Amino acid sequence: MTGCSDLSSVWEELVRDGGRIVYLVLDGAGGLRDRTTGKTALEMARTPNLDRIMRQSACGLLELVGPGITPGSGPGHLALFGYDPLHYRLGRGVLSALGIDFDLREGDVAARVNFATVDDAGRITDRRAGRLSSETNRRLCDQLRKAVQLDFDGTWFLETVAEHRAVLVLRGKGVADEIRDTDPQATGVPPRAPQARTDAAQPTAELVRAFVNQAHDVLADEAPANAVLLRGFQRHAPLPSLQERFGLRGLCVAQYPMYRGLSRLLGFEVADAPHSLDASFDLLARRYGEGHDFCFLHVKGTDRCGEDGDFQGKVAVIEDTDRRLSDLLDLQPDVLVVTADHSTPAAMAAHSWHPVPVLIHAASARADGISHFDEYACRGGGLGLRPGLHLMGLALAHAGRLNKFGA
Amino acid sequence: MTGCSDLSSVWEELVRDGGRIVYLVLDGAGGLRDRTTGKTALEMARTPNLDRIMRQSACGLLELVGPGITPGSGPGHLALFGYDPLHYRLGRGVLSALGIDFDLREGDVAARVNFATVDDAGRITDRRAGRLSSETNRRLCDQLRKAVQLDFDGTWFLETVAEHRAVLVLRGKGVADEIRDTDPQATGVPPRAPQARTDAAQPTAELVRAFVNQAHDVLADEAPANAVLLRGFQRHAPLPSLQERFGLRGLCVAQYPMYRGLSRLLGFEVADAPHSLDASFDLLARRYGEGHDFCFLHVKGTDRCGEDGDFQGKVAVIEDTDRRLSDLLDLQPDVLVVTADHSTPAAMAAHSWHPVPVLIHAASARADGISHFDEYACRGGGLGLRPGLHLMGLALAHAGRLNKFGA
Question: CB distance A65–B1 less than 8 Å?
Answer without folding.
Answer: no
